[in-house]
Design goal:
53% helix, alpha+beta, four-stranded antiparallel sheet, 35 helices
């Protein structure tokens, strides 16, 4: 299950190259036209040097590195290659190299050809001289060889280019990558080799590489697609950060063959070939008319419904049809098709058969087709010349698209799903927390073990293989299974973080993925300076942002996340994120849910989160009443959040604001309890409150009343903590704060509490010595209360420190920014209350 979490673009490209090429060919061709690659000329100054000038060039810095024996060995290899190239026609060494057709032969064939050439002339030739000589000539820019030929040789091209061509450029590249030890990771080495290969083929230094040069790397022939794509995204991100590309260049090359971007209405319709071109053009025009008022995801679904599920099916029923006016039998046949879904399943004996099943979204499909007919009829009255010829009676009646019963059934299924998952949520939460702690301890134990030695953990024996590795890997001695503990700890942490954030906030999956460091903010009371932590949710489905109050538990989670993703500079890395619904790249942001993958920072994806939840449920062993495994999806946490909040007394309209719903009925539909119960309880609560308070209280407070309200919080500040009494109520304990149960002690004032306790002990001893027995009893009550406050404070500190095992900063260090309001009319003040 853990292997599913490796969602690299290279693996995806290997799994589905044909699908990738079809979905992004248009976007890739457009990029190549906009950013052409640099051409390779037939000759340039160093290629026109004579044999002696080439040898003199290679004898001087920076090519004379190393020992004298090493230099003479390289010069001998160059002489051999130059001697062989001189046998081919051409004015330049590059022309002779091309005429030799060396790149058309394999390494073995070329070596044998050159060896035979020297044997025929009775000259000595070392087979190793060919690769070394060609590589030295490439580094000196005497000849230019295609990247595919160079990379397939497995030579030390990267090291030699680093030393001889542009050492300062590569050093700047290493600094901007911020990889540290990860600079020698496999993906990073491939990226460096490909940068060196581009420089060897195109000439120039690191900063001379263009976007088109990087796009050419996608076409390098190789043994596998993974070999072709490894490191491409990483090298592009390095060069982009180095400032090599123009401002309008794509922010990332990752997944360019998998993420095609937004298609035009013509391209959306042409995905499904339609026989009748006028109808095809009509659907395109209809989509263009609707496009300004809907998002891209809705546009894509609408194009699929009208093109594939409607008109293509109609053409199958009646080939050659050219009018939207459908006969009754054709309309009936199409409705029967749309109401059923045919899929192929594999039987136990290995054969596949077609199975028909009811289509759950059939009414929604017919509703879109009905809207298509009615829109054309309405537009025909406004613009007859354009739409009038297509106006036809709608073959779908209003009763056929009534979704009331379907919505009721869907709501019942969702409620049942929530009722099954809410009781076992504590089990999942405790499981992911325990697994995270266990993964951290196992990784720490392995890192403390000498390579080649064994260690024990929870009764199991492990072996740490010898060798230097960036990731910590071990072998289970009982089973022989190899495990990557760094990857396991990484997955354990992010599973815990995702579950905690979702269950504490109830945010949507899209909102979770777009949480950034800027989302963590705080509200400061203008008079006391007290901070109220808030989490800003960016506009998503309803295009409205909202602010959520951060609880102490959620603050610990956010603190752990920020501490983990911070870079070497102390700042959260800024990375681009691809919106899979809108098919666009968002602007680079300091996303919270990001991880180091393949040497670069990448955001967590929907599929990664889904795989993490599946793996966590499998480890926890959570099953339903039938014994089948229960599956959680991010939206399940949102429904459970609303259900739990309303069941614990939160008014539904407050839950609506927290969830960001436009309609309270949506919120009421999320909670899996009886609607009448919640509505009546809320109405009774409002009625009781209005009956107890005079009607004049239901008005906008005056500035004086607002200042009085803020002053209440100032009066709650005490030397040893905060008073928790309600607004407008006097102190009922005559300011005997040490005895008062409403006192919430401040951890920073623990020493003051200890001093008060010690003073009470001294006063009791003095009273007993002087015989003041009446005062002894009162002092002992105060002493007992002081000891209770100290114990309460210690218990709170233990719980807080146990919730985060990494060295967590305080919330003020984590917060992205602060906001201070001037008065009661500001938006921030309303959000804080």
């Amino acid at each position: 299950m853990e292997t599913k979490l490796r969602d690299s673009a290279e693996a995806s490209a290997v799994a589905a190259p044909d699908r990738a090429a079809k979905t992004s060919g248009v976007a890739l061709d457009a990029l190549r036209k906009k950013f052409p690659a640099r051409p390779v000329p037939d000759e340039w100054p160093t290629s026109l040097l004579s044999r002696g000038e080439v040898l003199d060039l290679l004898s001087a810095p920076p090519f004379n590195y190393g020992t004298n024996n090493g230099l003479q060995s390289r010069l001998g290899a160059v002489r051999a290659v130059l001697t062989w190239l001189e046998s081919f026609p051409g004015e330049s060494w590059q022309t002779r190299w091309r005429n030799s057709k060396a790149e058309e032969k394999s390494h073995t064939e070329l070596t044998q050809t050159v060896s035979d050439w020297f044997s025929q002339r009775r000259k000595a030739f070392k087979r190793d001289n060919l690769g070394t000589g060609v590589l030295v000539l490439v580094c000196a820019d005497v000849i230019r060889v295609s990247p595919g030929w160079l990379l397939s040789r497995g030579s030390n091209l990267r090291e030699m280019i680093f030393k001889t061509r542009d050492p300062l450029g590569f050093e700047e590249l290493r600094k901007i990558s911020q990889l540290g030890d990860d600079w020698m990771r496999q993906t990073a080495r491939w990226a460096q080799r490909k940068i060196a290969a581009v420089m060897a083929f195109k000439g120039g230094g690191v900063k001379d590489i263009t976007v088109g040069d990087c796009l050419e790397l996608l076409d390098i022939p190789g043994k596998s697609l993974a070999w072709r794509y490894t490191g491409n995204s990483l090298l592009y991100s390095w060069l982009h950060a180095l400032g090599c590309f123009p401002p309008d260049a794509p922010t990332s090359l990752r997944g360019i063959r998998l993420q095609s971007g937004q298609l035009t209405p013509e391209q959306l319709v042409d995905r499904f070939p339609l026989e009748n071109k006028p109808v095809r053009d009509l659907i395109v025009e209809y989509l263009k008319e609707r496009q300004p008022g809907i998002d891209y995801n809705t546009l894509e679904k609408l194009s699929r419904t009208l093109s594939l599920n409607f008109w293509r099916e109609v053409e199958k029923i009646k080939p050659g049809i050219s009018s939207l006016r459908l006969d009754a039998d054709i309309a009936a046949a199409w409705k029967d098709r749309i109401r059923t879904k045919t899929s192929r399943v594999r039987t136990p004996d290995g054969t596949s058969i077609e199975v028909s099943s009811p289509r759950m979204g059939a009414r929604q499909e017919m509703l879109l087709v009905r809207a298509f007919y009615l829109d054309i009829a309405q537009w025909a009255a406004q613009d007859p010349s354009r739409w009038g010829i297509w106006a036809s009676p709608c073959p779908i009646s209003d009763s056929e698209v009534n979704t009331r019963k379907e919505a009721s059934r869907r709501k019942a299924r969702m409620h049942q799903r929530t009722r099954e998952r809410l009781p076992v949520l504590p089990t999942l939460v405790s499981s992911v927390a325990e697994y995270r702690k266990s993964a951290e301890k196992l990784l720490a134990a392995a890192q403390e073990t000498i390579p080649g030695a064994n260690f024990s953990f929870n009764g199991e024996e492990f072996l740490v293989p010898p060798g230097n590795r960036i990731d910590t890997r071990v072998v289970e001695l009982n089973t022989g299974h190899r495990r990557n503990l760094t990857h396991e700890e990484h997955c354990a942490f992010w599973t815990w973080a995702v579950v905690e954030i979702l269950r504490h906030t109830g945010i949507r999956n899209e909102e979770l993925l777009e949480l950034s460091h800027h989302s963590v903010t705080q509200y400061r009371l203008p008079t006391t300076g007290e901070l109220v932590p808030l989490l800003q949710i960016a506009p998503s489905k309803t295009d409205k942002e909202r602010m959520l109050l951060v609880t102490p538990d959620l603050a610990d989670v956010l603190s752990a996340v920020v501490s983990r993703v911070r870079g070497t500079s102390g700042a959260v890395p800024v990375i681009p994120c691809y919106d899979h619904l809108e098919k666009v790249w968002n602007s680079p942001m300091p996303l919270l849910l990001q991880r180091k993958f393949g040497g670069e920072n990448r955001p967590l994806t929907r599929q990664t989160i889904s795989n993490m939840l599946d793996a966590a449920l499998e480890r926890a062993g959570i099953v339903d009443v039938t014994g089948e495994p229960i599956k959680y999806r991010p939206h399940d946490f949102r429904r459970m959040f609303v259900t739990e909040a309303v069941m614990n007394g939160l008014p539904p309209h407050i839950a609506q604001v927290i969830c960001g719903h436009k309609n309270i009925n949506t919120t009421m539909g999320y909670k899996a309890i009886y609607p009448a119960e919640a509505i009546e309880a809320h109405r009774a609560f409002i009625a009781r409150r209005r009956a107890l308070r005079p009607s004049e209280e239901y008005r906008t407070p005056t500035p004086e009343e607002w200042e009085q309200f803020l002053g209440h919080f100032e009066k709650r500040k005490l030397s040893i903590g905060t008073c928790g009494r309600a607004f407008g109520t006097p102190c009922i304990h005559e300011h005997a704060c040490i005895r008062c149960s409403m006192l919430r002690p401040d951890p920073a004032q623990r020493q003051r509490l200890l001093d008060i306790r010690d003073n009470l002990i001294d006063r009791i001893a003095e009273a007993e010595r002087e015989g003041w027995l009446g005062e002894v009893e009162g002092l002992r009550v105060s002493l007992s209360a002081a000891e209770d406050k100290i114990a309460q404070l210690d218990h709170s500190v233990r719980n807080r420190s146990a919730s985060v095992d990494l060295g967590m900063p305080s919330f003020t260090q984590v917060a992205g920014r602060q906001s201070t309001v001037e008065g009661p009319g500001s938006a921030s003040s309303g959000a804080a209350h």
